[in-house]
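Entry 14: structure prediction run for TonB-dependent receptor. Input pasted below.
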Amino acid sequence: MSTYRSGTRHAGFRISLLALAVSAGSAWAEEPLVMEHVEVIGQAVSIDEALRDQRNSDSVKSVVHADGIGQLPDDNAAEALQRIPGLSVERDQGEGRFVSVRGIAPDLNSVTINGTLVPSPESGRRAVALDVLPSELVQSLSVVKTLTPDMDANSLGGTIEVESLSAFDHDGLFYSLSTEASYDENVGETSPKFSGAISNRFSLGGGVDNFGVAAALSWQDRDFGSDNVETGGKWDFEDDGARMREFEQRDYEITRERTGFGLNFDYQPDDFSSYYLRTLYSRFKDTETRNAAGVELEDAQLAGEFGDAEGWRELKSREETQTIQSYVFGGERMMGLWTLSGQVGYSEARERNPGGISSATFEGDFAEVGFSSTNKPRLTVDPSFYDPASFELDEVEWEKTDARDKEKNIRLDLARDYDIQGYASQLKFGGKLSRRDKTNDAEIWAYDDFDDLTLADFQGGKVDYALDRFGPGISAGGLEGLIGGLDASEFYNEEESRIGDFDMSEDINAAYFMNTVDLDKWRIIAGLRYEGTEFSAKGTGLRDGEFEAVSSDNRYDHWLPGLHTRYELTPDTFIRAAWTNTVVRPTFEQLAPGFFIEDDEAAFGNPDLKPLESMNYDLGIEHYMGRAGAVSAYLFYKDIDNFIYNTDLAGTGQWTGFDEALSFENGSSAKLYGVELAYSQKLDWLPAPWNGVLLGANATFSKSDAEIEGQGSRRSIDLPNHSDSVGNLMVGWENDVFNMRLAANYKSEYLAEVAGIDDAAHDLYADDQLFVDFKAGYFITPNLQVTLEALNLTDESYFVYTGRSNYNAQYEEYGPTYKLGLTLTHF
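Run finished. Output C-alpha cells:
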C-alpha cells in the first residue's frame, strides 16, 4: 500500500525479470512511486500490461508481473540483474555471483530482501553473493540508483532490492511447477533442478480475500568445473623482455547444491491497514576438488628458455555451505491524513566449512624446465614431472571455518498529506535502528614431517584438464586416512588459527525528514538524513612470535542532504534530476584488527579506516513510444572521498625499516562520471511475422579518476573493480505459443588489484568479457511450456593480466551449458 495518498507517487526506474526477458535491457518505463528515486524493478506480466501500468502511474517505470519469472536464461538473482542497464556481474566458476552497479565494485553497493539488509556470508566482505538466491524465490528485483532520505545511505552505485512472492501478486489460486536438466560441456555432466511456487487468498473475519499465503521452493544439484592456468602476476619486466618466476595449472571439479524456500503472509483487515510477514531461507553448498600442478623457477626465465625449478602438486578438497535467512514483519495504517508504517527485520548469513583439506602439497626438483606463451602458458618439462614417484609429500593443511553475519533492525515512518496553496504535498519523517555483528573463527592444522611418502602412495583418478598435459591426480580419501591416524593436537597451527579470528559490531542510528510537493508539472522532494555509526572490533595480533589482544573503537556521524526533481515535458516524456549524498563503510577484511609482524615483514587490517563519502548528481530523460517501447538517457557524476585501496606501507612512518607492510589505506578523493543509455521496443506495427520481433539494448559508459600515495610516491589509477563500459543487447521473437531470445552481456576490463605505489607494471587487470545466451520456449498447452537454453555460447573465459594484456596472471575457461526444462503454470 502506498504511503502517499495524494495521487502523486514517487518516480522510479523499474525493470523486471520479464521486461528483461523481453528487452534484455528492459523497457525503461519508470514510475513515480512513494518517493522519488531512480529505480529498476521487476514483477512479471506481459510487457503490454507493464507499460499500461506505467502510463497510468505518476512515474517512469518498467514493470512486469509474476508470470514472467523464469523467462530469462538465468539461474540466480545475480544473473537476472545483469540484464538491467548499468549492471554487470562478477562470476565464480562461470556463474554470476556479485553484482556491480554502474561499474562500481559490489562491496560498495547494498542488498535488501523484503526491506531488510542482507548480511554477507563471506567473512571479509559486505557484498552479498546473489547466486545464493535461486531466481524462483524472487518475485521482483530492483536497483535504486539515487537514494531518497528515507532509505539507508549505504551504497555508492545502488541498492539492490529483492522482493519475494506475495499472494496479492495474483488473483486467487496461483501455482507454478518447473523441472530442468542442464548439461555442462566442460565436465560432461547432466544436472537436475526442480522448483515450484503457490499462492492463494482467503477470507478472514468480515473481509473478502483479505488474507494471503504464498510459498516457493527451489532445489538444484549442479556438477560442473573449470580449467585454469595462472602465474599470480609473478613476472619480472626487464629490458630484454618479461621473465616468469612461477606458474600453476589448476583443474576444478564442483558440485553446487542450491536449496531455497520462502513462506509469506499478507493480511489486509480493512481499506486503511495492511500487515505482512516475509520469510526466506536459502542454502548454497559447494563441494570442490581442485588439483593443481606448478613450478617455481630457480631463476626467472623468458619464454623458450630452460632452467632448474621446484615443482609441486597440490590438492584442495573441501565442502563449504552458505546460508541466508531473513524474517521481516511490518505493516501500515492510515489515520486520516496521516500514514504510519513500520517494520522489524532480522537476517543472518553464515559460511561454514566443517573441515577439509585446504592444501596438500607434494614437492620435487626438476631440470630443463621451460614454458611457451605468456598469456596462456604451457609447460615444457622432463617426463619425470608426470611420474607420481617424483613428488614427496611435504604438508597437509586441514582447515575448519565458521563466519557469521547477523543484522537486526527496526524502522518507523510517519507521513502526513497536506496542501500548499492547492498543491499536493507530503511531509514524511522517521528513524531506524540497526545492529550488526560479524564474527569469524578459523581452526587450522598443519601436518608435516612425513618420511618416504610420495604421490604414488596417494594417486587419485585421471584429471580432466583441457589446457595442457596434467599428470596424476591426488586422492583426498587417502590423505584423510593418513592424518586421521595422527594426534591432531601436535599439529595445531595456533598462529594461522588466531590471527584471522575477529568479532566486530556495527551499530547505526538513523533519522530523517523529507517533503514532497507537486507544482503543476514538477514534483520536488527535499530532505535530510542523519546516520551515526559506532564500530568496535576485537581480534588477535602476532608480533615476533608473541600474541597480542587487539581491540578498536570508532565513531562517526554523517548528515546527508538530498534533492530530487521530476518534470513532465510531455505526456510521454519526463526529465529527472537528483542530488544525493551517501556513505559506504569499509569491508570487514579491510577493518580486520588482526596483524602479523615478523622481522621486516608485516600484514594487517586497518580498523581506523574512514568510510567512503560520495556526493552524487544524476540527470536524465525518458521517452515512451509504441508498444513495449521506451528510450532513456542518464548522466551521472560522483565525487568520492576516502576511497580505500590495498597498499604496501614499507619504508614509511613506523614501517620505515620494513621490506613489506601490506595493509589498506584511504585515498584522498576520486571521481566517477558517465552516461547510461537504454532502448526497447516491440515492432508490432510491422506485418507478420515481423510484428513478433522484440529489440532491447542498453549501455553504460563511465570513467573514474583516483589518486593513491605511499612510500614517498603518488600516482593516478582507475577505481578498483570499475568497468568503464557495460552493455546488453537482445533480439527476440514471440507469438502466443513460441518465443525465443538471444541476449548478449558485455563488461569491459577493470583494475582488479593494485600493486605497490611505485609498481604500476604489476597491477592486475581483469580482461573484458562477452557472454551470449539463448533461450527458446514453446507452449504445448496454454499452461505447459517446454524451454531450451544455451548459455555462454561464446565460450567466454576469465583472463587477468599483469600490467600489459599479454602477460598472464590468471586464465580460466568454463565452456557452454545447455538446459532443457518444462514448466506448468496456473493463475
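Notes: The chain is about 5% helix and 60% strand. Will compare against the previous run tomorrow.
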